Amino acid sequence: MLRLIGLELQKLWLNKTSKVLIFISFILPFTVLILSSIKINFFGFFTLELGELGIFNFPIIWHITTFFASYFKFFFAIVVVSMIGNEYSNKTIKQNLIDGLSKKEFILSKFYTIVFFSLAATVLIGVATFLIGMYYSSYTEASIIFRDIEFLLAYFIKLVGFFSLCLFFGMLLKRSAFALAFLFVLWILEWMVFWGAYEAFGNADSAFKVKNFMPLESMYKLIDQPFQRIMMTKFPEKSELVYDYGVHWYEIAVVLGWTALFVFLSYRLLKQRDL
């Protein structure tokens, strides 16, 4: 495994564009550190400091930082599809196989690299979240600090699942731009499934339950939006704000299932394709 990861890291390191995109994908999530220190002056009447609003309190901070950090995954998604596109355009995929790398090892090298970067991103956002929380949070008890830390697990699985989807599209289409465009096509298809389910069942709740099993939606549902939860902390008496924001095992299982399928299909495409 380490050998395969080393081969991919060497390729990425030699590509200037990949180096820039990897740097951006790791740095941008840390804008939450900047946001935590922002002070907004309203014409001299009062100053609003985001860190003092309670949104960086434990345990809710785990939910907030992982939700927003997940939106920066598109930068590394470009790296993933470029890994495949460059292999085909530079003919290195054929050379790798000639040099003794099996097709299975070729796909695993891509997947291991995806897991490696996803784990690194998760550790970094976890450390940043912990430091911000320790500085701003009113609660310092260990039981509260590490409550909801499962959002980090959800963040990791979300990254692995999304990048595995990008890997499959890269293998399917061989071109980075087409692979990224197909993400938008898939998003449209999922909404078409939703409307089809709505017509079939006659209500939105059932339609959303169907849509929740689709790849992009299942990944999104791992970490639900935190805005309603923030409002719940400010207005606990408003029962209409209550919703299920937790990380559930069956949501993780769905994403892991899609991840395994995407990696398997990527391997099948490579195995059957004439290089």
From TrEMBL:
Keywords: Membrane, Transmembrane, Transmembrane helix
TM region positions: 20-40, 60-84, 111-132, 152-173, 180-198, 249-270
The keyword Translocase is assigned to this record: no
Pfam families, sorted: ABC2_membrane_2
Keyword Membrane on entry: yes
Highest taxon, organism lineage: Bacteria
Descriptive protein name: ABC transporter permease subunit
